[in-house]
Amino acid sequence: MAHIVILGAGIGGVAAAIEVRDGVKKEHRVTVVSDLPNFQFTPSNPWLAVNWRKPDELKVALAPVFRKKNIGFTDVGAKRVHPTENRIELNNGESLAYDYLVIATGPKLAFGEIPGLGPHGGHTHSICTLQHAEIASKAWDDFCKDPGPIVIGAAPAVSCFGPAYEYAMIVSTDLRRRGIRHKVPMTFVTAEPYIGHLGLGGVGDTKGMLESAFRDRDIKWITNAKTTSVEPGLLKCDELNDDGSVKKAHELPFKFAMMMPAFTGIDALMGVEGLVNPRGFVIIDKNQRNPTFPNVFGVGVCVAIPPAEPTPVATGMPKTGYMIESMVTATAHNIAALLNGKEAKEEGTWNAVCLADFGDRGVAFVAQPQIPPRNVNWSSEGRWVHLAKIAYEKYFLRKVRKGQSEPVYERYIMKLLGIERLRNAL
């Protein structure tokens, strides 16, 4: 009997637990280790931050879900991973031994890399976690009573640009509905070399679409922006030329600011030789396995993927929801194969499917695969994207509550669209 441990209970961790449990024999144990008692649907955080959602609407208690699936669960969190000993040291002093480990922790938010960044002791808000979005939502109501300039964007080395774009557009939409948009100058500050780069080198016409959307909403932007510090009511950044020299130094006053921070690996992984890179991201091969510790797999935002291309200001490679689910499916199949004495040969397609909501319209894109060159490089826009994002939220939360990862009908529909999770399915 083998013990498979899933570290993390976000989009990747919950899906991994369900797919592994469904894919291995009943005698094998599956356990999830998290530092939270519930699943949180982070793609809806931009809505929460302007009070279009309530926190409880975006949570699912995990213990009942996992109990029905015969999956063990603890929410005490991990203090340290010891891959040479095949064990996880938990925050309560206990240890959990494993035969196979799937790391799906998500990232640590590196607010400390820029003085004054972040909601805890800093001067900017965040929508990276439900708790941060809830803090922002309370500040948002106060801001709307006495509005002023807003700065939104992404700091150097950010790998998750989509939520910053969504939040900027949703904020603009909410202000228009309140009838106070004319009182709020907005500036988007990003490390990307151009609007719509998204850490991907652009997808289809995302550059043109997002620039047009910003113009339509009177949102100014600064690209190649290296944010250097944030003071109360003032963000400082250097706008760089393509050769890395400073083109212009900006000092942007604000009354409300949200900046996406860079990511690192979590403390429990940081510095584990052979397992992670210098920033703490899990090193994996094409089969999602760590080369040094082949019984350890990595999925989601916590894995090490090189940037799509060099940029004057550092940008990271995003890991979108469908890409993460692709990693999960490959991992689950490979663990099942190893337990059956077979070779772990499955590869995820790493296709990116993204719905970026603007509050009334939106932009959708498909990149197959996410890392160029691509077989499919498509983008579109319209009100249908806004409606599709709402449907996706409801659907995904329902899947979690029911303990499902990829129902047959979902697999069939995605296949009809030419989108598969595994390379050998193509």
What features would you describe in this structure?
The protein is globular and about 65 Å long. α1 (11-23) packs parallel to α7 (321-339). The longest helix has 20 residues, at 383-402. β21 and β22 form a beta hairpin. Helices cover 27% and strands 24% of the residues. The two termini are 33 Å apart. It is α/β, with parallel strands linked by helices and 426 residues long.
Keywords:
five-stranded parallel sheet; 426 residues; alpha/beta; four-stranded parallel sheet
Give the secondary structure arrangement, pairings included.
Blueprint: E1 3-7, H1 11-23, E2 29-33, E3 38-40, H2 45-48, E4 59-61, H3 62-68, E5 72-74, E6 78-82, E7 87-90, E8 95-97, E9 100-103, E10 108-109, H4 130-145, E11 150-154, H5 162-178, E12 186-190, H6 206-216, E13 219-222, E14 225-231, E15 234-240, E16 246-253, E17 256-260, E18 263-264, E19 296-298, H7 321-339, E20 352-357, E21 362-368, E22 376-381, H8 383-402, H9 408-416
Parallel strand pairs: 1-2, 1-9, 2-5, 9-19, 11-12, 11-17, 12-13
Antiparallel strand pairs: 3-4, 6-7, 7-8, 10-18, 14-15, 15-16, 20-21, 21-22
Helix pairs in contact: 1-7
